[in-house]
Amino acid sequence: MALTARVRTRDGWAVSHAVVTLTDAHGVQVLRAEADEEGQVRDLTGLAPGAYTVIVTAVGYAPVAASAIVTASGYAEVGVVTLARQGGEELPPPGPWTVDPAHSTVGAVAQHLGISSVRGRFTDFAAVIEVAPDDVVHSRVDAVIRADSIDTGNRTRDEHLRSEDFLFVDKYPEITYRSHALTPSGTDRWTVHGELTMRGLVRPVDLFLSYLGTGADPWGGTRAAFRATAELRREDFAMNYNQIVQAGIAAIGTTLRVELDVQAVRGTELPAA
After folding, report:
1. Tell me: the pLDDT tens digits for 133-151?
2. Contact 54, 41 (CB under 8 A)
3. pTM above 0.85, yes or no
């Protein structure tokens, strides 16, 4: 007999201080359990079969209520409960936001040999987000990435990626992205339409963006968090190098998955820390 749940933030982190309360049909509390360091809740209290209300709370987060059914065996599986930061905004306040590179990641994933993935990231980049005051769909983002800052954890591979076969950093030192429109795809999700310039070639690229929330930081500022993904075809940017190792299997996949985890600070200046 047990109740189980997993408590997460909107970007997938465990909420280790969450509290789960179970009330019966009369509103009487019958169980109270705390999450562990991994955000897991497991309580072995015996419960009578029936319908219950689950209330999940945590300091700094808005409470969430959900229904749960306890089976004849006394078992109830709540599943993943997602908490949103309390005191944040439903949308980022309008105005300029500066991406904090120390707390953001610009990554890319490529398939290797058809069976695994190789991950890399760019360590030198800057971006500004302008949230429109009239309608968020008129917002825009401008980003610049130093192409030679690619880091996959392997020096030989990184040197090859900087060569003419791939990024050609000697001739094209910067990668830029400029958006021109947003299309809503949910209450906190958008498709960002823009143009990516890489190796001197300009191609339309859509970013699939999720807004994770806004809150105060320890330095007296306001931060907003975002996650975005995109898929690029290497041939669109004249990166045609490859090796066929066997039976038509390419050493490197033809597509790249871009993964962005971004913190942006309201205003045009970043904190010292």
Report:
1. 888 889 999 999 999 999 9
2. no
3. no
